Structure formats: C-alpha cells, structure tokens
C-alpha cells in the first residue's frame, strides 16, 4: 500500500500553502486519506512536475465508493477469489460454517461476499476498522492476490 | 427459504455453492463464483452459430455434413471433451469406436502423466474435502491458482476452517509456493516462496530428496543448503501435506519419475498427497472414462483388432506426421492452444467443431455446430480435479442441443 512519505517525495516540497495545508507533507497525508485530490495542488499542474503528476494519479486511485470504514474495493482488479470472504474475522465469527469454511455465506450478517464475480460490502459498521474501538485489522488486504482492497 | 445451490463449471474445482438469479431465461447474476466462473456461465461474448464452409445453416444440415465427413475419413481424430459432461464423453468414446477413430484430449499435453500415475496407484492422492479438514502444509509447485483456479485457496486449501484446522490460515496452515516467478499465489505465500530458475525443478526435487534423507542438499542455482533444509523441514513436520502440481512442474520434467520419487520419499518421512491442478472442468472425467474403457487415459486409437496406444496417437504427433484426415473437436480450441506450426495442419483437413462459443478453431472449421454451455444450460456429471464425481443440474432452460445430444444425432446419421 502507498504511504504518505512516498507521496511526499513526488510533491513539489515547497510548502507554498496554495492548497490550504501548512506543508506538503500535510497535503500528502490528506491525499492519502482522500480528503483532497491531486488537482488541489496548483504547482503540481505545472509542466516541470508533469511526470510526478502522472505517477501520483496512478498511485492515488479515485476513492469512488469508499465505505464508512474507509474500505475501497477496486472492482476492476477484483477476481472474486473470495480469499477475503473466508479470511475476514468478522465473517468467520458471524458465519463459521458458511463463509468461514470456504462455502457460500449462509446469512446476511457477513461484511464481505462475492456477487457476480466481484466482492461486495455490506454491514460495514461491523468491520473491525469501524467505530471508536477500531483496530488495524488487515485480514482482507494481505490475502488479496490482486491488491484490489485498500483502506484510506 | 432453503437456498438452492448450483455447480460452477468454470474450472475443475466445480464449486458447488453457486447462487443464481434468472431473468427472462437468462442468468442475470451469478453469486459466490469467481470472475472466471461468471464469465463462463453467463453468455459468451461471441456465441457459436451452425456453419458449413462459412455459411449459416440449420443444425440438421450441419450434423448431416459432420457425419458424412466422419464416414468418409479412414483416419479421423476426436479431440477435446474437457468441457463436456461425462455423458457426452462416453458418447464420444462410442463414436470413436464406431468410426475407428483416434481419440485424445487436452491431458495429452497437460496433466495426463500425473493422472495416469494416480489411476495406476503410483502416487498417493486425496480429496479436496480432506485437504480442507486436515491439511496443514500445502505446496503449490509450478501452479498459480490465484489466476487459474481463483477459489482453490479460499474454498479448500489455505483459508477455510476445517475439522482439524479450526484456527484458520494464520496459525493452522502453511502455504508454500515453488515457482519460476513471483506469481499472485507466491505473494500470498509470503516468505514461503521459493523461486527457482526455469527447468530447475528436477534439480530441486533431487536436492529435497537428499535433504529429507539427512544429507546436505546441493543445487547449481543460487539457493543455499540452509534454505532447502528449511523447506525440507517444513515438509517433514507436516501432519497432512498436499502437493498441488501445476503445469509449470509437469512441463519442466521429461517424465513423471522424479515426482514419484519425491512423493515416495515424502511419504517415508511424513504424510503427503498429490492433487493435479486440472484446468477444464471435466478433463479428468474424460481420462477416467477412457481408462475404464481401454486402460489408457488418452492417446488411443480404436481398431477392429483392438486399441492402439502411444505417443504416435497424440494430437500433436498426429498433426505433425499428417496421419489424420478429419478432426472432430468438442469444446476445445486446439488452434489457439497448440503451437502454430502444429495447429496450421488443422487447416489442411476438414474440421468439425462442437462448441457453445465461437473459437479460433470453429472460425476455420468446415463444419461448426453450436451447442449449449454444460453446467449453465444442461446438467450432467463431471469429475473434479481430485477425482470426486460431482452432479450438476441446468441453471436455465434451453431449446438447443447439448454436446451429448449432438453426438447421438451424429451417430444416428452415420
């Protein structure tokens, strides 16, 4: 996954404040959490930064439908293997004999399921990354062979 | 309401937990299947049409033309059937007997040697359900199931909880990947990925066998003895191990003997099984059916005097030596899967194809017959990659003919 420092390396590093943030590092962090877009940095659109701009646009995919827990599923990358469905600890707890055992989910409480060949989210508030007691669970990210799941 | 489950025929995993939604007699949604399965079960991008010499005809004329080609050819070849039901395969074998034809399938340049060894009881195997319940060490050798069988890891081998593997993949299971490149499966295996140069599989097998016998292993490529001993120890400690053999390993070995040697050694010191990563959903089924009939799994020829078998009866050799004068290709696309120099020989002989989709072979064929997609529009039985028979029912109704019905009609017309 991309980190803020990698993004910072590609920014102008002038701390010009045109974006409204105090520093380029702060802008990088905001970019990572999708608060701002690449176009919010005016100097980046200048010719000398064109290469960096292109690199950044590949790194920062548009958030699209980031869920409330910050999860983004890149449906164009997902192959529907279901690794995340079976590995997700919430799915296992809610549906041990269905999703947790590699079979089709047997109830509606699961948070990940495969529909029409791509993974779909539901019951997002059950995700371990949601709410005030959230933990940095990464069960679905590390098991994804195509890196189709990302958290912002 | 009890959920009704269907079987996916996208690959030889035959996932049996597919939920579907149907609108206007068409599949509108296929749930729980991977993208590969969805793509096969939903309509193909270019559905096949019945054609003779490139012009559209009705199916009766196409069948009549096909049977006259088969009748007039002294040395016909029947090839494919990996995407057909067991019923259709049996009909194809019967047809081969009637026409004294050569019969071969994709296993002749795919997993054939391994399936032959399994059917001959030379290699120990197990079912995928046993893998799910008991396996703690899973080796993918020359295979990348994340791309070829996307649900292999999630449905059976690595991620699911099973009877004696309740704590999941992080604690209870180890997945090992041996491959020439860092594949998507290798990424999941993390530090249990062992990269080897192409054609070095046999060398690593020898090194592993000596490591398992307590000797210091040596290889000529950059893998130190420490790393090989570490791998050998992982294998040795397994309570229930399984080696999933992909084409990468099969293609790099000149014969199956090194693999048999490794499996025997592994079973001396530990408990290991082998599962071939079969591609088409019923390729193993064909091998079983022909084995039952003739004692051979592929590369056979029916003659009045008996059955001839050998490499000279394989599709590659037959085309190379120009020993066939007609070909019936069922649910396969040799024109795109065979090397160009061999595939071009198909242009010189009359080819009949039976396929639900338009393929490169059917475009060049003299007679193309459109059939239905097995598993979506017709039911039957098939044999999963681990040898378990799976029965499936059709998902949507159809008026078109299945492979089996088309083959019966060709036989009637003969």
From TrEMBL, chain A:
Keywords: 4Fe-4S, Iron, Iron-sulfur, Metal-binding
Domain of life assignment: Archaea
Residues in 4Fe-4S domain copies: 1-58
Domain 4Fe-4S ferredoxin-type, first and last residues per copy: 69-98
GO MF annotation: an example: oxidoreductase activity
Gene3D superfamilies membership: 3.30.70.20, Electron transport complex subunit B, putative Fe-S cluster
Cross-referenced PROSITE patterns: 4FE4S, 4FE4S_FER_1, 4FE4S_FER_2
Keyword set includes 4Fe-4S: yes
InterPro entries attached to this UniProt entry: 4Fe-4S_dom, 4Fe4S_Fe-S-bd, 4Fe4S_Fe_S_CS, ACDS_complex_subunit
Pfam family, one: Fer4
Name this protein carries in UniProt: Formylmethanofuran dehydrogenase, subunit G
From TrEMBL, chain B:
Superkingdom of the organism of origin: Archaea
One GO location term (cellular component): membrane
Keyword match Oxidoreductase: yes
Coiled coil: none
CDD domains xrefs: MopB_FmdB-FwdB
Keywords carried by this UniProt record: Oxidoreductase
Protein name: Formylmethanofuran dehydrogenase, subunit B
Biological process terms in GO annotation: methanogenesis; respiratory electron transport chain
Lineage, highest ranks first: Archaea, Methanobacteriati, Methanobacteriota, Stenosarchaea group, Methanomicrobia
GO molecular function, one term: NADH dehydrogenase activity
């Amino acid at each position: 996954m991309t980190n803020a420092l990698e993004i910072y390396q590609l920014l102008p590093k002038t701390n010009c404040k045109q974006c409204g943030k105090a520093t380029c590092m702060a802008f990088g962090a905001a970019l990572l959490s999708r608060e701002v877009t690449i176009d919010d940095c005016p100097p980046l659109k200048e010719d000398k930064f064109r290469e960096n701009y292109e690199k950044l646009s590949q790194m920062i995919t548009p958030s699209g439908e980031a869920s409330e827990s910050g999860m983004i599923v890149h449906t164009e990358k997902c192959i529907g293997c279901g690794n995340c469905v079976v590995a997700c600890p919430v799915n296992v707890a809610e549906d041990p004999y269905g999703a947790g055992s590699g079979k089709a989910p047997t109830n509606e409480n699961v948070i990940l399921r495969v529909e029409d060949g791509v993974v779909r989210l539901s019951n997002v508030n059950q995700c371990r990354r949601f709410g005030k007691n959230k933990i940095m669970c990464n069960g679905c990210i590390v098991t994804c062979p195509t890196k189709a799941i990302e958290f912002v | 309401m009890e959920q009704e489950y269907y079987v996916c025929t996208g690959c030889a995993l035959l996932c049996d937990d597919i939920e579907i939604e149907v609108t206007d007699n068409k599949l509108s949604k296929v749930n729980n299947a991977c993208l590969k399965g969805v793509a096969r079960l939903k309509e193909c991008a270019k559905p096949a049409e019945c054609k003779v010499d490139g012009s559209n005809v009705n199916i009766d004329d196409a069948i009549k033309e096909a049977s006259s080609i088969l009748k007039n050819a002294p040395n016909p070849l029947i090839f494919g059937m990996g995407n057909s039901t067991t019923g259709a395969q049996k009909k194809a074998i019967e047809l081969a007997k009637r026409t004294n034809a050569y019969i071969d399938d994709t296993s002749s340049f795919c997993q054939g040697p391994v399936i032959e060894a399994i059917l001959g009881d030379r290699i120990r195997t197990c079912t995928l359900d046993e893998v799910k319940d008991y396996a703690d060490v899973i080796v993918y050798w020359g295979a990348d199931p994340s791309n070829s069988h996307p649900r292999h890891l999630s449905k059976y081998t690595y991620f699911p909880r099973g009877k004696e593997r309740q704590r999941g993949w992080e604690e209870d299971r180890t997945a090992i990947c041996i491959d020439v490149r860092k594949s998507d499966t290798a990424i999941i295996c993390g530090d249990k990925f062992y990269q080897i140069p192409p054609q070095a599989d046999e060398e690593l097998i020898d090194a592993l066998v000596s490591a398992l016998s307590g000797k210091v292993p040596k290889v000529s490529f950059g893998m130190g003895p420490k790393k090989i001993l570490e791998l050998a120890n992982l294998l040795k400690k397994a309570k229930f191990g399984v080696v999933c053999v992909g084409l990468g390993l099969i293609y790099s070995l000149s014969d199956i003997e090194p693999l048999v040697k490794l499996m025997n050694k592994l079973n001396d010191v530990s408990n290991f099984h082998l599962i071939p990563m079969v591609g088409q959903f019923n390729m193993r089924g064909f091998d079983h059916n022909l084995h039952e009939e003739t004692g051979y799994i592929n590369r056979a020829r029916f003659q009045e005097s008996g059955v001839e078998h050998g490499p000279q009866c394989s599709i590659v050799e037959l085309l190379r030596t120009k020993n066939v004068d007609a070909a019936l290709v069922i649910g396969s696309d040799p024109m795109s899967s065979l090397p160009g120099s061999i595939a071009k020989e198909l242009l010189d002989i009359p080819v009949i194809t039976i396929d639900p989709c338009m393929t490169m072979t059917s475009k060049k064929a003299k007679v193309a017959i459109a059939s239905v997609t097995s598993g979506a529009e017709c039911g039957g039985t098939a044999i999963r990659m681990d040898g378990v028979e799976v029965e499936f029912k059709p998902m949507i109704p159809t008026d078109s003919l299945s492979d089996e019905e088309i083959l019966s009609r060709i036989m009637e017309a003969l």
